[in-house]
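Aim 2 progress. For Hydroxysteroid (17-beta) dehydrogenase 2, the working sequence is reproduced below.
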Amino acid sequence: MAAYRLCVDVNFLSAVKMSQVFLPLLRRSRGRIVNMSSMAGDVAMPMLAAYGASKAALSVFSRVMRLELSVWGVTVVTIQPAGFRTSRDEIVSAASSEAREDYGMAYISSLPGRLSQMSRQSAEDLSPVVDAVCHALLAARPKALYTPGRMGWFLPMLARSEWKNPVTLYLDSQSVDALQTINRLSVRFSTECLQTFNN
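Predicted structure tokens for this construct:
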């Protein structure tokens, strides 16, 4: 339970508190709020329940604040990075003794390998995230949502569809190529969309 409290405090409640503190100034200056969420808030991923729930709360909070504060000309932006490398060791070591017992050591032991597979598909270069933050802060008309990352636009669409969760497919030992397949599909879909718009 401590992991849930920590994630909610750091990833969600701190943003709420900061927004409340600066709200009078933001209204007067027609300012801007930029919240850093995560694709984990939209796409369910094993072992990331606490983190994902806290980021989902932040994303919904940001969308509601965008609607409510637009009356005062305050802009609220959400950034949801996808597919960037994180520390897999922290995820595995954070597993509670109850989780280790419930899932079994075989599953827990397999996580570094599975997370390593995901990590190989993840980008090390964080410049797309930095670019999104800069645009969100400095653009005259920032977007409501930025999804930097190779599949940032595609994963939420899949998560809301009736297709099987791509992350679960990826972690399934029978389907280690699932994300590569999804990535190829997303590139093909993007290409077809561009061709349609150009015609």
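The chain has a mean pLDDT of 73. This observation will guide construct design in the next reporting period.
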